[in-house]
Every structure is written in structure tokens, then in C-alpha cells.
Design goal:
Layout (H helix, E strand, L loop, with lengths): L2 H15 L5 E5 L4 H12 L3 E6 L2 H15 L4 E4 L5 H15 L4 E4 L23 H29 L2 E6 L28 H20 L5 E8 L8 H8 L14 H8 L10 E4 L7
Parallel strand pairs: 1-2, 1-4, 2-3, 4-5, 5-6, 6-7
Helix pairs in contact: 2-3, 2-8, 4-5, 5-6
Length: 285
């Protein structure tokens, strides 16, 4: 291949995968995957804005990404369940950048699998209504609020992308056997809480609704359903889970970045209402 052909190929890839000049909002930006999504935006030339209820985590992550990639990443406080707070952030960002191009609805509660002396908190029979409401408020209502506030601005401008971060557990029920502890009686066995599946399934429904609702306004809406990320989990759990995955391992922490760039860029210009499943083949069995 000649030098000019190499240049043309590079220019073509930059034109369809590049996010130069794009402003991308990432909810839950201070968390494990939120930082990775923000890095992906930065690598493609975009400006990531990390939004989180934990303001120091968002600011620290943005500062690190800014130093690593030489871009003006920004970390801001946002309670995504509050339309008033989201509108204030919108006004701030429009004053600062004059535009919003991408929204990644990534934030969610991570319901724990704890037990007290006499009951396991995560089991359906013991799961409290307060916890149900809290998890749905962040994971589903928060995505709705952010889509309503920031998505409406993109629709007004006639251009934008919304990406909802769902899960492989939006497509299949959790295999509770991988959490089982044979030393515990049945009523104390840990399980993946019900709210995780409900929230992630709801995000796919929200994706399809918004995709058709804003199709004529130039706003594309897709979802990604990632599998679990290896992050120091106990060896016994890892062995049980990876035995269920055709590729035989969990995802590396940065392994979803390519999909983020693809779905946020013009490379996916003819995709809307879709759910991209990336889980090592778990749902193929």
C-alpha cells in the first residue's frame, strides 16, 4: 500500500470513528466503567464530561483523563434523579461548550449481596421496597431524566447520540449458582438482586422507545449489553462464571472501549434502537 493510500485510509477511519469536537456526557463517570467510557471518548478526540453523585470521584477521573490524553475533560456533580439538577447542568454545559452531542447513560446502583444474622438482604423474599425504589430511581428513572433533559436538547439541534449501558442480564436471568456458598443454609444464600435485571431490561425498552421517538430529529439511541469485568473477584466465583462463558474469561476493564467509540461515532450511523451484546458468548449457549 502506498503512502497516499495509507493516508487516505487513516483519514477515512478518522472521519467515521473520530469524535473530534464532540461533547459527551457520561453518567456514573467516576465509577469503574464510567472512567473507561470517558477514556474511549477521549481517545477518539471527543471531550468527555463525567457526571456523578460522587463529585470528587468525577473530578479526579476527569483530571486524570485530561492529563493522560491532553484534552479538557470535565467532572461535575449531578444527581441524575433530579430534573432540576440536570437542567442546571445542561445550562452550564451549553454556556461552556455551546453544544451536547452524546449522552451515555451508565449510572446505576450496584445492589449488594449482604446478609444479616438471620436473612440474606439480596434474596427476593427479603428485598426491601426501599432498596427496590432506590435502585430503580438511579438506574432507570435517572436514565429517563437525563434522556429527557439532554436528549431533548440534542433533538432540538437535530443531531445526537444516546447510548444506554444495559447488561447481559437484560437478556438472560442470572445464574444464581455462581453465587452459591455451600456453607450457608438456603435462606442465607446470596443471589444477584432482582433490581439489577429489571433496571437493565428496562434500559433496553427505553432504548427502543427513544430510538423511534427521536428518529426524525437526528438522535440515534442504542444500547450495549456488556458482560462482567474482571476486577479482583474471588477465585471460586471466577471459576464458576468463566465456565459459563464460551471465551472462557471475563472482560478486561478496557475491552468495551471499541464498542463505545463505534456506537457514539458515525461508524454506526445506520444503527438505532439496537442492543449490542458483548459478553464473551455467554448468551449463546
Amino acid at each position: 500500500m502506498s503512502m497516499s493510500e495509507n493516508d487516505n485510509t487513516g483519514q477515512y477511519l478518522d472521519s467515521i470513528f473520530g469524535l473530534n469536537g464532540k461533547v459527551a456526557l457520561i453518567t456514573g463517570g467516576g465509577g469503574l466503567l464510567g472512567r473507561q467510557h470517558a477514556e474511549a471518548i477521549a481517545k477518539a478526540g471527543g471531550t468527555p464530561v463525567l457526571l456523578d453523585i460522587d463529585e470528587p470521584a468525577a473530578v479526579d477521573a476527569a483530571e486524570q483523563i485530561g492529563m493522560d490524553f491532553g484534552i479538557p475533560a470535565l467532572g461535575l456533580l449531578l444527581d441524575i434523579t433530579s430534573p432540576t439538577a440536570a437542567t442546571a447542568v445542561l445550562d452550564n454545559l451549553l454556556d461552556r461548550y455551546g453544544r451536547i452531542d452524546i449522552l451515555i447513560n451508565n449510572a446505576s446502583n450496584n445492589p449488594k449481596m449482604e446478609k444479616t444474622d438471620d436473612v440474606n438482604f439480596s434474596r427476593l423474599e427479603s428485598f426491601t421496597l426501599d432498596q427496590w425504589n432506590a435502585d430503580l430511581s438511579v438506574g432507570l428513572t435517572g436514565a429517563f431524566v437525563c434522556s429527557q433533559v439532554f436528549g431533548s436538547e440534542m433533538a432540538r439541534r437535530g443531531s445526537g447520540v444516546i447510548l444506554n449501558v444495559a447488561s447481559d442480564l437484560a437478556l438472560i436471568g442470572p445464574d444464581q449458582r455462581i453465587y452459591r456458598d455451600e456453607s450457608l443454609p438456603e435462606h442465607l444464600q446470596p443471589v444477584k438482586p432482582v433490581t439489577y435485571s429489571v433496571v437493565k431490561s428496562g434500559l433496553i425498552g427505553l432504548t427502543r422507545y427513544l430510538a423511534t421517538y427521536w428518529a426524525s430529529s437526528g438522535v440515534r439511541v442504542n444500547a450495549i449489553s456488556p458482560g462482567g469485568v474482571e476486577n479482583g473477584q474471588p477465585g471460586e466465583f471466577m471459576a464458576k462464571l468463566t465456565n459459563l462463558i464460551p471465551l472462557g474469561r471475563m472482560a478486561n476493564i478496557d475491552e468495551y472501549q471499541g464498542a463505545i467509540i463505534f456506537l457514539c461515532s458515525e461508524a454506526s450511523s445506520y444503527m438505532t434502537g439496537a442492543n449490542l451484546t458483548i459478553e464473551g458468548g455467554l448468551t449463546c449457549w
